[in-house]
TrEMBL record:
InterPro entries found in the cross-reference section: EB1_C (IPR004953), EB1_C_sf (IPR036133), MAPRE (IPR027328)
PANTHER family (UniProt xref): MICROTUBULE-ASSOCIATED PROTEIN RP/EB FAMILY MEMBER
Cytoplasm among keywords: yes
GO molecular function: microtubule binding
Span of the signal peptide: none
Organism from which the protein derives: Cinara cedri
Coiled-coil intervals: 29-56
One protein family per Pfam: EB1
Main localization, broad class: cytoplasm
Name by which UniProt lists this protein: EB1, C-terminal
Keyword Transmembrane helix annotated: no
Keywords annotated in UniProt: Coiled coil, Cytoplasm, Cytoskeleton, Microtubule
Domain called EB1 C-terminal: residue spans: 21-90
Record localization: Cytoplasm, Cytoskeleton
Amino acid sequence: MNSKDAKLADHVSLSKPTVLADNKGDHNIPQLTKQMNNLRIVVKNLEKERDFYLSKLCAIELICQKHGNEHPLFFKVMEILYGTVEEFVGPEVGTNNDGNGE
């Protein structure tokens, strides 16, 4: 996350939903709309950053695959690229960005 996203995330409360003062909650619509728009910007920037680093890793992977037999370092890099962490949970297959799976 770059500094602009960090500053934006500081202004957006992700931990607690806004408590509605009345049953309708209409007075919160502008605030929630602004928060939703800010979160969309953060997500868009994070996706760009993710894609940037993924393209770098893919380029490194191709180099290592092409020259893997020339030096043991390439093999070690491939081990790192393909290694996983036991606690890692990837995205569920079949879900879209809103998590509905539709």
